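Working notes for the structural subgroup meeting. M.R. asked for a predicted model of this chain before we commit to crystallization trials. I am recording the input and output together here so anyone reviewing the notebook later can reproduce the run.

Input as submitted:
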Amino acid sequence: MKITYFILITLLVAVLCGCSKDEEATIKSVALDKAALSLTVNDTYQFVVSIIPSNLNATDFIWTTSNSNIVSVNEKGIIAAVSVGRATITVYTGDKKFKSSCTVDVAQIFATGISFNVKTIGLSVFQEYSLSYTISPSTATKKQLKWSSADSTIATVDNTGKVKAINIGTTNITIKTDNNLSDICTVTINPFTGKQISQDGKTCVVNVPIAGTLSTLLTTAEIASITDLTVLGNIDARDFKCMCTGISNLTVLDISRVIIQAYNGASETSSSTKYPANELPAGSGSGKLENIILPNSITSIGGGAFKSCSSLTSMDIPNSVTLIGDEAFYSCTSLTSLRLGNSVTSIGINAFAGCGYWKLYYSKSLTSIILPNSVISIGGGAFSSCIITSMIIPNSVTSIEGSTFSGCFTLTSVTIGKAVTSIGTEAFQNCSHLASISVYATNPPKVLSSNAFTSVNIYTCVLHVPIGTKNAYQAAPVWGDFKNIVEMAPD
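Returned structure, recorded in token form:
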């Protein structure tokens, strides 16, 4: 019996002692070896976890990151810096009663050097070349680069390092990092010679060394298939005949790098036999031509140059042009974009008559034409039947000829400069939506015919005149017919 009691007491003591050891084995706290940590992109780090009591060997931890796109963590507590920013790494005990966190800041690896793999290249006009480079260190993550050309008229470069040869000459291409490290490659552009034809035969680049010989440089098959043509070298009226009547499918023409030579003789682009240098001759465009890029060397656009080019959609007239001839753009019914250079002084009779008219019913039309301050004379009917909504006649113009804006039924406002002294017959006839006329001349311009404003509603259209001139306009023929004459403050 005594033996039995002894055994029971021994077992009880053992149980009580075991319970005491389990209580002592419970984790009281957990801590990471770092409370804050700085890394660069692609770095890794393994945390060390300390627990209290320290004699325990716990491995059941849960790891989390506040942003895995910045810092990732695995089940062993190894973190990896993914991208620039800040993230918080937290470790939990298995029962999530205790935790510890570390703030991790990730920075970029900046480049310490950059260099082109080639320092000089030679290209011919129209060639392209992709520049390559080396950044140090190879692990650099801060690689935002800026490309530039010292002279984009000679060669251009895009944001991938592709260089395009534009004109003969030499220029430098620069690559620069966002911490201002840079290198330079010198590019020399040589003349383009010969001819290049695309595989489908539709795109052609050709150099014409002797004016008048374009037709001899193209085969019959090429003339029949070309739709996009770039011409370099020297051309005259005979070459325009080839381009715009011979190449019947031509839609895009780039002659920005040519020199237009004078020519005396029949070219069959018009009845003329004398064609001045640096002038676009009559018949410079065809019915299918949609876009043309002009050279900066031309000084005039001849009469009828683009007459009835019904597919022409845009025109940028260079600043070198001073004269636009009669009917130069007559009935260019698809024209939606027009820019006049800042040197134009003379606009011929019916120069832009009917421009954009067809597009009114189908899509965007030519609603605005800005006249440069260089314009001195505007021929009769110059903008008749144009689908424009407003017009400002600069102070350099002294007269508005007959029918200049006749039939512009979409015109709602017109400003007449202070130098205008006369307005011709039917100048604004059938401008039925004209709602505002601002005249800056202190002396009312002489209106040469009572039909100058036929179809303009004199009851609703507001006539704005300079301060102190209302009485003079009310007393002037035709002007006095307007029922709403309002004096306007000076500019």
